[in-house]
Protein 1
Amino acid sequence: MARKTKGKKSKKEEVEEETPDLESVDQGENSDDSSQYSYDGSDGDDSQGDDGSDVYVSDAYEDDEDDFEDQGSSDEDEELLEKQHEDDGSVDEMNQMEDLEQTYESAPRKWKSGKRSATGNSRKGTAESQLMHTDDLSSDDEDEDGTGNRIGKVPLHWYDDYDHIGYDAHGKKVAKSASKSEGDRVDQAIANADNQSTGKFVVHDALNDKSVELTQRQLEIIRRIQNGAYAHPEHDGNPDYIDYFSGVNPEVSGLNSNRYLPKSKFQPSKWEKMQVDSLLRKLEQGYITMDYLTGKVRDMNDVNKNKDPNAPFLLWTGAEEDELNMRKGPQHIAAPKAAPPGHAESYIPPDEYIPTEEELKQWEEMEVKDRPHGLLVPKKFPNLRSVGAYKHSVREAFERCLDLYLCPRVMKRRLNIDPESLVPKLPKASDLRPFPTAKCIEYKTPYDGDEAPVIRCVSCSPNGQFLASGASDGIVRLWEVETGRLLRSWDLSQVAKSVDPDCDENDDTIKPVVTVEWNPNAAHHCLLAAVGKCAVILATGTEGAHDAAITEALLSEAKSGGNVKTEKAAKAVKWHSVKSDSKPVSSFGLSSGPLCALLTRNEVASLRWHVKGDYFVTVSPKAGAPSVLIHHLSKGNSQQPFSKAKGEAQTACFHPNKPFLFVATQQHVRVYHLVKQTMVKRLISGCRWISSMDVHPSGDHLIVGSLDRRMIWFDLDLSHTPFKTLKYHERALRSTKFHHRYPLMASASDDGAVHVFHSMVYSDLMRNPLIIPVKILRGHNIRKKLGVLNLSFHPTQPWLFTAGADGRIFLYQDI
């Protein structure tokens, strides 16, 4: 829609004056069918006219639109139309089409367009554009067969040495034209002259290497663009502004017509509530009356003029506190009340309150704030009416006002909370049974001398029938649990000396048994003991008829001296076979006593079995890189998993059901994946020195004991920081253990006490573990600042074995 201006003619009007009307040409050649080719040029609905009636375009004009849409391929469309009309036998219709095309090619261009209404439809009485439909072509329609070149933005000079110029959509080569390959410029000049004489416009398509003839429609578009006009005649660069919302009919546009009303439209207005509250407040205070609210009185000033200013009114209405609380600004703080009068302020004070002359002289020399009663001097009066006015009343009132003005006051809000409500509600200890409660059996260690040897470690067999203990005298003792009878004793200190080449034969130093671990597999009847630099493998001789052959097969490689395959591990550990003359405890036992000793570089401080009973790990804190060694008992082989030492390793243990290895240094616990040979996680304990470690049977939780009196619980799935830190002991922790069947956990300390906890771990990951202390077991004496050094749970019963520095072993049962 062109903009109409006064006094000036637009370019479109000048073109209309210079060029003849295309409608007259159409009427001259096809006067009978001129109404058949009318077209509604509106952008709204192409199928409706101005009066709402349907307007249909003839088949001939639709074919002409197809001719416009296929740019540069008019010859193909003509052949297709001729073939269709020959098949149908419609010769008259073909002649009519040719006349229409001839009219379009010969006639000059004239465009007419009209303004549109608010609904988007053309207004009545406007002229429609002729013969040129809306330009709605796309690049995909130009190559329907897919025979064009589809190489994209690839440089064409890459194909100079080939016989083709690219590939089409079907993957076939697009051949080069012969004229370009021969380079005949004379033929091209002749062809250009012929095209100019015939009125053709031919351009060269370099991508497809062919000449393309421009149609009249394309030439018309080029001409309009060169003249600075829009490519399509119906485009209006300056449309009239239509105000959709502020017009006469704001619903014409249809915007937001399908939206639901917001929730705020169905809720009471907060602003109206505030206005109502303000009016009620003014009505209560007397600023307005009901006549003002009902409209009988327009202005309250007229009502207040008739009021008597001298009329009595209430000085205190009783709502002063409410007004203070409702007012804006800082919160009102009431002044502190004055102290009530004492016996000295009485008009008949007791005799002890009446000062003497010496006291009066002393009070006069003192400052007022240091006097016992301030400015007041107690006196006796015969009766109350004899009491005169207090001469210091004005001064004291003034000083109180100064105190209230100068001294800052702060409102202290005290929380009235019941202290018992802050304590978590824990179940009763009786509801959490069974757990060990009383000392039942004492295992007395035989010794020579004045003091009993320190019991360093204890371990119970998987069936719960036997108990092994290690003492500072270098002897491992085998006990019967139910009777407390000593069955066997093996001196491992001599074994360690005989294996160690650095040890002098005349050296009488006794090497203590630091750690004893029973094989967790019930079919493997063997022990591990750490003595000096050696980890000694012992056959217990307690196997039955079915387990004797299995135990013998397991220990066969150990008896032969092992078979370390890797050179690095061979430097760190050596397997030595040891002969033993001990008699087995069971009649089915084939061997008993120490069978093999694994000699390392430094003293072994800790060793632990794998849950399957074929692998075990030894820890030597001072050995450096080979401080942690993994041994395979059935094959007699050893491995060194780490090439570098990350701190001094204190203890290590295996994961119960995953190929993980937990290595505890002094302050951290590192988790390693043995198959992938990578570190999975590093747990930050926050302790100064880790002394013990144990993994929950589920494998998702870990407890760590430290020498700074802390027992730390880690949730491996939750975080690398402690889940809970328990600090119940008074001295260093020596051992921490989980029970493998019951939800029990215990910790032993140098304070001579053993704390038993109920530790329930739920399968639901959303519930935290329940950790409740249920019992404190005492019975060991503290000797040389050492208390309970080790503990071990019974595998099938809620019983607990403890080993103390006083040389005694106790069994606590649930009685």
Protein 2
Amino acid sequence: GMPGQAVSPTHDAQAEAIAKECAEFNAPPTFVRPSLTKFPNSQNMKQKAKIPLGVLFQPLARKYRVPAVNFGSVGTVVRCKRCRTYINPFVQWEANGRRWVCNLCGYINDTPNHYYYNLDETGKRADRYERCELSTGSVEYIAPGEYMVRPPQPPVFMFVIDVTLPAVNNGLVDTVVHAIRTALQSEKLPGGSRTQIGIMTFDSSIHFYNLNGGLAQPQMLVVSDLEDLFLPLPDDILVNASESEKVVQGLLDSLPSMHRNTKINESCLGSAVKAAHMAVKHIGGKVLVFASTLPTVGELQLKYNRYKPPMLNTEREVELLKPADEEYKALAVELTRVQISVELFLCPNQYIDAASLAPLVKFTGGDLHYYSNFNASQQGDKLREELLHVLTRNMGWEAVMRIRVSRGWKITNFFGHLYIRGMDLLVVPNCHSDQTFSICLDLEENVIPEPIVCVQCALLYTNSDGERRIRVHTYSMPVTQSFPEMMNSMDAQAAASLLSQQAVDQALKAKLADARTFLQSSCSQIVASAGTGTQGGEPLRLLPLYVMGMLKSIAFRATNDVHPDQRVFSWLRLESLPVDMQASFFYPRMVALHNLDHTAGTVDEQDQVQLPAPMNLTSEGMSQDGAFLMEDGEMMMMWIGRSISLNFLYSVFGVSSLDQLNPDVAETLIGTTGDQLSSRVNAIIQAIRLEREPPYMKLYIIRQGEPAENRFFSNLVEDRTLGLQLTYNEFLSKLGSRPMGAAAAAAPTATAGPMRQY
């Protein structure tokens, strides 16, 4: 009813029972995060709130072990005959367990004989706690034969490396070769003796390598006719990694010197991806492309003159952020048909048109890694660590995913790196532990929703050991008619994440200014509909902070200093970034290092490094005699004031004045001075890095007064910054909400990092 109206006690008891059931059996928040944990019961209520209704999924998140379920004895996996929902803790039972009612579509199914068990006095299965699929929201089924169209594929890695003059000069070739060698020697590549590997290089032509294990050394075969691409050696380009180990190592040892004296500046990246497609299409797998140079020869050429700096921060900027044409998307769709995913590592020293290359990763379940002005001595560590992570993390192959939702509700949008085949089959040729997908939901017309809304995400994939698995996450939310109850159930991080996805959508459909207007007006309507800041509690204080952070971030800020490649990278990253990492992108974490209490940087009983308390993102808390560490999930910066104590400099870096500290090597000194403070600062940096990986966050040391400090100060989102000349309190009053004072604004520090229970 309306707030203040009496509610009948039976309704209350029922609502409580539903809430308890959801809390007990839902998939953990590691895997599923809805923007509201209590959904509205009418279209009217949804529109009044303006909070985006949706759910974020990270199906293979690595922080949690999912129980395996084998239905071999039952004959097949138990699913609803009508809508194909997997059996889960929220189904209802009838006829003493002989029938079950699907909690998504309401269809009454017969229980298979082998799966029958009697019910207890509450009408639940008496054996529910002995069966994972009836007592936990996240399970993984071992898939029987009918879930395979062919034998499960082995892990396949095809490396496609740019060897043009810029890629040799900036150190890309050396760094990549070194990282692949490290990965092979560490024996951490998944798949053991089944794994297959191939290496190709390209400049203005394509170089294949015969890696047949019987050869004394690899042979290079050059294909320079890009009009008529062919595979010179169909059988020996992709080989078994363990059988050809010596030949592969031999090639890696000689690759850098083979191309060291090149004079070739032109790249045929488009043709090279097509050649990789030909080489692995009989199996599928991961194609890893490393490029420093815009493709100007061969197929799918791009043009340098597309980049026009005067268009930045104008109505027309968005033209630079969309693909030049549909060609790379068409190629990506071809790749998904044969289970190929592309991982793109761009290491340019000038414009590389990331916007046009982006569909290669967006539609194949891959990711873009972007290192602007790449130079191996500065960013080599980051590239190497991120490549090693991509090669060794938990991943799945030849995957498809379906997300189903209760009757009365519909999915209106999918976000993430995937290709939608037909109406709702989500194709993800390579899925992995870092990938996040999201959906937006809406009520169907003229429906009175059931008391519970349920979503189920099912990912069918082959794991790296060659087993076909179905990872299923089921999550239910009570529906409420109380507006305050719904508003208070908002998850600010999940809501902010959905807003950012919708904003990118708006920008691409129209222009960047529309995305900013959308963010501001959504935020202002959400804050207004909650009434004054008091009843909304913590989430309603956090949301404006995250939205303000978005408006000031490189993803959306209205300045002419954001390179289009950089902006496209931030958009692609936001599309598949875990929720807590998105939150740190919009509201970075800042801690003081010069006045650590006695516990910071030491290890507690649980073996966790204790971190200093996060600070508000405003320069008011900073001082010239301080050292402050800031991280946004992508990079770290340490700002050191001019009046820092010499004692601190000597203890942490082993230097006796700030002028003696060389920012380029400063990071390597931390933790090496033998001083306890140095070790504690090092422990804090490593702990934050571990919490955020991937990516690998490089640390930049900035001395007060250096030009690089602009980057640090632009992250102080509660102050006036380049992108938006409003403080947090000014932003709030512009939204029509009362300023909340510094103490209230400090709220996000509690949730800026990943929540502790993970």
